[in-house]
Amino acid sequence: MFRTLQNRLVSAKPVFLAAQRGYAVKSVPLTAETYSTKVSRNPNFKKLDEQDLQHFSSILQDPHGLITGEDDLLFYNEDWMRKYRGQSQLVLKPKSTEQVSSILKYCNDQKLAVVPQGGNTGLVGGSNPVFDEIIISLAGLNKIRSFNEVSGILKCDAGLILENADNYLAEHGYIFPLDLGAKGSCHVGGNVATNAGGLRLLKYGSLHGSVLGLEAVLPDGTIYNSMESLRKDNTGYDLKQLFIGSEGSLGIITGVSILCPSRPQVFNVALLGVSSYEAVQKVFVGARKELSEILSAFEFMDGKSQLLTGRHLKIDHPIESAEYPFYILIETSGSNKEHDDEKLETFLANTMEEGLVDDGIIAQDETQLKNLWAWRESIPEASTIGGGVYKYDVSLPLKDLYGLVEAVNEKLVEADMVGFDDESKPVVEAIGYGHVGDGNLHLNVAVREYSKTIEQVLEPFVYEWIQSKKGSISAEHGLGFQKKNYIGYTKNDVEIKLMKDLKKHYDPNGIMNPYKYI
Amino acid sequence: MFRTLQNRLVSAKPVFLAAQRGYAVKSVPLTAETYSTKVSRNPNFKKLDEQDLQHFSSILQDPHGLITGEDDLLFYNEDWMRKYRGQSQLVLKPKSTEQVSSILKYCNDQKLAVVPQGGNTGLVGGSNPVFDEIIISLAGLNKIRSFNEVSGILKCDAGLILENADNYLAEHGYIFPLDLGAKGSCHVGGNVATNAGGLRLLKYGSLHGSVLGLEAVLPDGTIYNSMESLRKDNTGYDLKQLFIGSEGSLGIITGVSILCPSRPQVFNVALLGVSSYEAVQKVFVGARKELSEILSAFEFMDGKSQLLTGRHLKIDHPIESAEYPFYILIETSGSNKEHDDEKLETFLANTMEEGLVDDGIIAQDETQLKNLWAWRESIPEASTIGGGVYKYDVSLPLKDLYGLVEAVNEKLVEADMVGFDDESKPVVEAIGYGHVGDGNLHLNVAVREYSKTIEQVLEPFVYEWIQSKKGSISAEHGLGFQKKNYIGYTKNDVEIKLMKDLKKHYDPNGIMNPYKYI
């Protein structure tokens, strides 16, 4: 039988950026130094001078629009995992699309390299500079432009925080078709620029389907605007698609028009303990069939990820009865509580009867539901409690998904690097969790330090393993700085050539987010 | 109370192409002559000669791969509405991607213009030549390449007929995420090339979300292949998106990889009679909220469209009690019959109680369900029974959707052109129907002849009306030949310039489907 979740979990929503930012402790090494053999500054780019600063001042007309103080710059130069640090001397905070246009036009004319930055919650160093690129923060462009209650179309600035967008929609009976752990910090524009996937892609599909229009500024200052698009529009090439997932390499997204679904009236969340990865797969196949239209998330987590999360949150596991090698989080959402409860309970009873599920709990109220999600969403942060984390975000055929975690742990054990509780070893453990429903695994190698030695054990091994299974080396996190040189493991030569041609077509001077992507 | 549908409808699935092809009766005027003031042959294109034919023979290695006989060519030169007729002297039927590549490379080198053609079911003359372009038919590339029962990913040749794809998927418990009236003839590749929308977009979203990978041949013969993509892949620009909806203007799609959802276990279809367009909107807003996750189609049809359909099918209307100005077809699909029935019945009872719905029927078995859909799908063909039809496929804000039909009828009455039963008038009536759920109206002006005079009353009036409401002049049919000159009513100058740049980037010689699109 399923036990009811006692209201034991404290509100444990991960607050990205805050916890990790104890700057005094130890400074993050400069990306340019850590990767000095891989990357060098492009001498074609101009170095920022006093005249440039004056010009930007005249564009922004606001003393708070330019950030130049070293301490203030740190927040923008570093990523939240404390893995990358750039050396930008200038952050610009435009407040209008026209200002973004004037800035880019000037940078393009002067060959000043730039990095667009949203909420700075990226996981591949994509939104941090490598050398002295100017950071263009979208934080000042954060308004809701309009919402249509009949069509469900939301139009907003790129810098709107995802959670703010969703809270606004909730008041109108709608939901943002994307949800992810960093929602309290990340920007809608950043989500689109990185084609974020997140927790409910299973139900709402990818942003390539739900984004209806964009406003974006090209490197030469041209403002591309397709914000008026309706749900269906077959008049010419769907240019906005190029910006979705382009990680700031073609231009800067300044506005987003997106189709939002009706907010489900009922949510259910269950957390299950299972004995094998095979059982995880079987439960998934069954859930997709039996829960079908109400299945909105299907997440899995391995046992070690749970131990780390418990230590991080300093609370017991929601399922106290025993430790299981795998856990599954299922969310359903629909319009009729009675129907949804019946579907979920019947399904869970069947899976237990078939011996696929060993134990589990169903959230009994909103707080319990939020706490179960918070538990799941705390894993990324919990992975860093040893000191750091190497993150791999991969797509693999379902049957091979967990094999990668096992292979990496074997490899690390061979190298005598792993000690879950042995502080003398550099690696805590490789853990696995993610969106089974999308074939998307997050492999987090929790470490006590970042080091070349660990990196050499992991790479290119991880990428070669993925390639051998015809997977993708980036399911949803993107390429950024981390994976720039590894795209060949997933894309073929023709694809890469066509991408490079396209980059040159739109950004002939290469000023947009250089040293990254392709 | 809802009456049960008696099994009166004969199987009335529209068979495109067949009925309209009474060639002996009256020949379709040549597009080049009808539109002689708008278009002239590009003298840069080479004219086909004997050496070219020999070269193509050597590529295809099959005497049936080349069609040159005038009667045989007619099927490919004409569209099914009998509105456009090209003058191609050659149809090529490659059987492999490599053959397509060799053909295009040769054509590009020789500057021979080409038109890719799928099932030739298009509605804007996009797949028929205007002058002597070589037609490349994908009909010979029609195999299923693979299907993964766990992921639901189907990989197939572009020339696979949509209905064949869906029948195959049905055997495996899956459904193709697209359905439209022409499914018995249209090709999957053509659907993708035109970004077809169809009947269930409301539930399954657009092809931009569900297509995972493509194989396409660029004008210079380069084979672009992203068929290995999994559900999530953020490694670089999503190039395949450019081909979705590009109508053969950038290259030829030869393979499609698409994510298919589980086939719902229960379908319900209801047909309702309502008294006003306002009621249609209210029923829709209610359905989206109350039927929510099981609502898979919401179609509306006006009264006159029903009269034409009845005459065409030679049967009574499924709702016999009275004639209504508007009808709604609702489809639900889900995993639990009892739950779905309860949701639909409760919803319909409420709408009748509120006075929104006057009468209606629910299909009681599979045959009735199919017949109701067949009734809806027969409207396009029924629109042509007077002799021809001017078709407009538009996106509009929901509140303005039917206003366009009213405005057009007013305009035609002013010009003294309309007579539903008066054969002396050139126009039968402007009728409206379509996918309310997607804000997509089909305005069909049923006529007794195609004439410049009618066209001048309709255009640019229709396009200007749409522009004034910020709608799209093509929701799902595409631009093709019909709307080439009207894209400016929906897209702005920057968008059009960027599109033209992109066309030049990929097709510098302009051989791909010339005289159309942009």
TrEMBL record, chains A, B:
Keywords, sorted A to Z: FAD, Flavoprotein, Oxidoreductase
Annotated Pfam families: FAD-oxidase_C, FAD_binding_4
InterPro entries from the UniProt entry: FAD-bd_oxidored_4_C, FAD-bd_PCMH, FAD-bd_PCMH-like_sf, FAD-bd_PCMH_sub1, FAD-bd_PCMH_sub2, FAD-linked_Oxase-like_C, FAD-oxidored/transferase_4, Oxid_FAD_bind_N
Q: Kindly give the PROSITE patterns that the UniProt entry links to this protein.
A: FAD_PCMH
Q: Which domain of life is it from?
A: Eukaryota
Q: Start and end of every FAD-binding PCMH-type domain? A: 84-263
Q: Which cofactor does it need?
A: FAD
> Into which family does the record put it?
Belongs to the FAD-binding oxidoreductase/transferase type 4 family.
Name-wise, this protein is D-2-hydroxyglutarate--pyruvate transhydrogenase Dld2p
Q: Which organism is it from?
A: [Candida] anglica
